[in-house]
Each structure stands twice: as structure tokens, then as C-alpha cells.
Write a structure and sequence with these properties.
Layout: H1 2-28, H2 35-62, H3 68-95, E1 98-99, E2 103-104, E3 118-119, E4 123-127, H4 128-146, H5 156-179, H6 183-187, H7 195-213, H8 229-248, H9 256-284, H10 289-303, H11 312-337, H12 345-363, H13 381-410, H14 419-424, H15 426-431, H16 443-451
Antiparallel strand pairs: 1-2, 3-4
Length: about 450
């Protein structure tokens, strides 16, 4: 009799344990997964990831041939480093439950608590894991963009530290401010896919780093030009393609807003290419392919914060605005101020992101997206003021935090390569490789001399 009672108690305890363990899963299943939306966001995530190898080609063609592998290595290193950082702590800092409207808490540390079921807070129709993956791709491309500002002169060990610290201390907090329930989102700032979070933060941080680390050797003496324009065109094409996932995917559903974002993304990129080429044609007398791809990227940057909130006609106007502004900045302002932003990370992403964020405050319309807000053109003075605050806050925080990070790293490892290593090229001196095979100019002999 006692044996039967003991068996009964064991079975009852086992039943209670099974029910207790499975209850959270059953509760989570109350939010059904929309397979169409899920497939759409998975594809968009892959498209956004492709943008970083695209950026590697875009930047790779713009540097001198002795540094092409080093800039590509930096882009691919970001893909690996940020992918791990995001799972361990980046996601929870960006999208964990809010702490003081400034940062996410550690509830999702190591993705604890994230599951195959939708999240009612961020992604109510797609698996939480898919939302994590989609947002990861944004963190990757943002950190990679910065490398263009200090290309051809940063030590790789310093770069690794910089990426990890910058993503954790700059990108994650700003992402939380805007998208994770932080103070800018509460204030009503609109940033559909990353004008402030991605482009302004990376552009400003790139500028600070370029100023901190100094100019490339011979910058004031020699004219430094892209070594492989077909690489740059290929990279721009991959960026344009991937940007559809970047912006349309930010709707987090295969719906009308995603369709709008897709259309205005292409429209603003095209208008940006036209207006940049027109500006340089008037200024220098010749249209260039470099100008065309630069203008297209500037247009893509500008439409990013506005993609789900503005009409196609507004996208045309934004593209016409951003091309000449960015062209003037990279061709005149940068030269006058005398800093060395190697590949115009600030001139295109910082300036273009600023134009886009402020233009969102002008052209956003609830007639286009009832879930948005009206901009200045439609009587929304408040929204324009909020966009100004968002831009200013991102500039100040990104600049100060980046400066602090650089000072800390410089006390651990030299930020910049030696003059001899820079003269030989980072491909050979840092990575022991050459993109096109050793030439007859004695590069291998010089490398041996440096190492000895």
C-alpha cells in the first residue's frame, strides 16, 4: 500500500514539474507565428548582412592597393566580433527591459529568455530569435561603416578593441534610446531604420577617430585616389540591393509599410545619384561613376530614417537635397577644415544621416503612415523639434563616448601603425598578404626589414 502511495506521489510530482516547465511555453504560444512575415524578415536579415561584404568591396576599391585587404579584413572582423557580442550582451543592452530610459537591463543576457515564439514587446508576429537576428545585422553594418574614416592607418589589435567597446558603449545605448523603449523613443523621435542609430552615430564616431588618430602619411603632399573603381561600383550595387532589406524589413512585416519603404528607398537613392552627378558636372565639367555611386549611397542614407513615414514624392525631394549637400561637404568643407576622413564616412553617413533625420521632421505624414507623425510641412512643429533633439543628442554622445574609448585603448595598445608599416601598406605589414601578389618594387624586402 505504501509502495503504491509512493508511486502515486512520484507521478503527481512528475506531472506538476512537467506542467510547471511547459507553462511558459504554452503561454508564449498564445502569440502565433506569422510564417509569411517570418520568411520576409529572415530574407531581409540575410540581405542586410550582405551589405557588410558589399561595404568591404565599396571601401576596398577606394583605398590604395596596398591596403585593400586590410579594410576588407576589418569589415569581416566586425561580422564575427559583433555577432558574438550581440548574443552575449549587445541585444539585452539594446532591447532588454528599460532601465532609466537609457539602457536595457540584463534579462536577455546570453539570449536567456529569448525563444522561438514571438515577443509581445518588439515582434508580435515573428519569432523572437528572428527579431534578434535582424537587429544584429544593423549592429554589424554600423560598426563596419566607421572603418572608412580611419582607413589605411589603424593597428588591427586596436581596431578589435575599438569595435567591441564602441558597439557596447555607443551603439547599444543609442539603439535603446530610439528603438528599445528609451528616452528618444518616448519623446517621439522617428527613425524608421537607423538615421540616428546607424548613420549619424557611425559618421560622428568616424570623424572623431580620424581627428584623434591623425592624417595619413603624405596626405597633404600626394593625391590619394581609389585604386579599383569596379570594386567600388560592385560594393555600391550590393549596398543598394541590401538596403531594401535594411529599410523594408524595418516594418517587421510583409505589409504596406514595407512596400512603401521599398519604393522610397529606391527613389531617394536614384535621386541622390542624379543630384550628386549634376553637382559635380556643374562644378568640374564631367560626370563620374564615383560621383554616381557616392550619390546613390548618400540617397540611401538620407531615406533610412524616413522610409516608412514619407511619400515617394518627398523621397525625390530628399534625394535632390542630399546629393549636393554631401558633395559640397566632401569636396569643399573637408578640404577647408583639413581633416582626413579617408573614405568620407562622416561626409556621407554623418551628413547624409543628419539631412535624412531632419527631413523626416519635415516630410513625415500621417496620411502616408497613420502610425507615424506629421512633420513641419504638415503642421508638425513638435516632430521637427524632437528630430533636432535626437540629432544633437546622438552627435554629442557618440563624439564624447568615442573619444573616451580611444583614450582608453591608446593606453593599452598603440592606435596607429608605425610610419614604416604605413608606408609598406597594412596588407603586408599587418596581415602578411598582398591582394595582387608581390610586385617588383621590393615590398617583400621592406617587410623583412620592418620585422627585423
Amino acid at each position: 500500500m505504501k509502495a503504491k502511495t509512493s508511486i502515486g506521489m512520484v507521478l503527481m510530482l512528475a506531472f506538476i514539474m512537467v506542467v510547471g516547465i511547459t507553462m511558459p511555453a504554452l503561454a508564449a504560444e498564445e502569440l502565433p507565428v506569422d510564417t509569411g512575415n517570418t520568411a520576409f524578415i529572415i530574407v531581409c536579415s540575410a540581405m542586410v548582412l550582405l551589405m557588410t561584404p558589399g561595404l568591404a568591396f565599396f571601401y576596398g576599391g577606394m583605398v590604395r592597393k596596398k591596403n585593400v585587404l586590410s579594410i576588407m579584413m576589418q569589415c569581416f572582423a566586425v561580422m564575427a566580433l559583433v555577432s558574438v557580442q550581440w548574443v552575449l550582451m549587445g541585444y539585452t543592452l539594446s532591447f532588454g527591459p528599460d532601465v532609466g530610459s537609457v539602457i536595457g537591463n540584463l534579462n536577455f543576457l546570453g539570449l536567456h529568455g529569448v525563444s522561438i515564439f514571438p515577443s509581445p514587446d518588439y515582434a508580435s508576429t515573428i519569432p523572437h530569435y528572428v527579431f534578434v537576428a535582424f537587429q544584429l545585422m544593423f549592429a554589424i553594418i554600423t560598426a563596419a561603416l566607421i572603418s572608412g574614416a580611419f582607413a589605411e592607418r589603424m593597428r588591427f589589435s586596436a581596431f578589435v578593441l575599438f569595435v567591441l567597446l564602441w558597439t557596447t558603449l555607443v551603439y547599444d545605448p543609442i539603439a535603446h534610446w530610439v528603438w528599445g523603449g528609451g528616452w528618444l523613443g518616448q519623446l517621439g523621435a522617428l527613425d524608421f531604420a537607423g538615421g540616428t542609430v546607424v548613420h549619424i552615430s557611425s559618421g560622428v564616431s568616424g570623424l572623431v577617430t580620424a581627428l584623434f588618430i591623425g592624417k595619413r602619411l603624405g596626405k597633404d603632399r600626394d593625391t590619394i585616389v581609389p585604386h579599383h573603381m569596379p570594386f567600388t561600383v560592385l560594393g555600391a550595387a550590393l549596398l543598394w540591393f541590401g538596403w531594401f532589406g535594411f529599410n523594408a524589413g524595418s516594418a517587421l512585416a510583409a505589409d504596406g509599410i514595407a512596400g512603401l519603404a521599398f519604393l522610397v528607398t529606391n527613389t531617394c537613392a536614384a535621386a541622390g545619384a542624379i543630384s550628386w552627378v549634376a553637382a559635380e558636372w556643374l562644378h568640374h565639367g564631367k560626370p563620374t561613376v564615383f560621383g554616381a555611386v557616392s550619390g546613390a549611397v548618400a540617397g540611401l542614407v538620407a531615406i533610412t530614417p524616413a522610409a516608412g513615414f514619407v511619400s515617394p514624392l518627398s523621397a525625390v525631394i530628399m534625394g535632390i537635397m542630399v546629393g549636393p549637400v554631401c558633395y559640397l561637404f566632401v569636396s569643399k568643407v573637408k578640404e577647408k577644415l583639413g581633416y582626413d576622413d579617408s573614405l568620407d564616412a562622416f561626409g556621407i553617413h554623418g551628413v547624409g544621416g543628419t539631412v535624412g533625420a531632419l527631413a523626416t521632421g519635415i516630410f513625415a505624414s500621417t496620411a502616408v503612415n497613420p502610425g507615424g507623425a506629421d512633420g513641419l510641412l504638415f503642421g508638425g512643429l513638435h516632430l521637427f523639434g524632437v528630430q533636432l533633439v535626437a540629432v544633437g543628442a546622438t552627435y554629442i554622445y557618440a563624439a564624447l563616448a568615442t573619444l573616451l574609448i580611444l583614450k582608453v585603448i591608446s593606453m593599452i595598445v598603440p592606435l596607429r601603425v608605425s610610419d614604416e608599416e604605413e608606408e609598406v601598406g597594412l596588407d603586408t605589414s599587418l596581415h602578411g598578404e598582398d591582394a595582387y601578389g608581390y610586385d617588383d618594387m621590393g615590398v617583400n624586402d621592406r617587410l623583412v626589414g620592418i620585422q627585423s
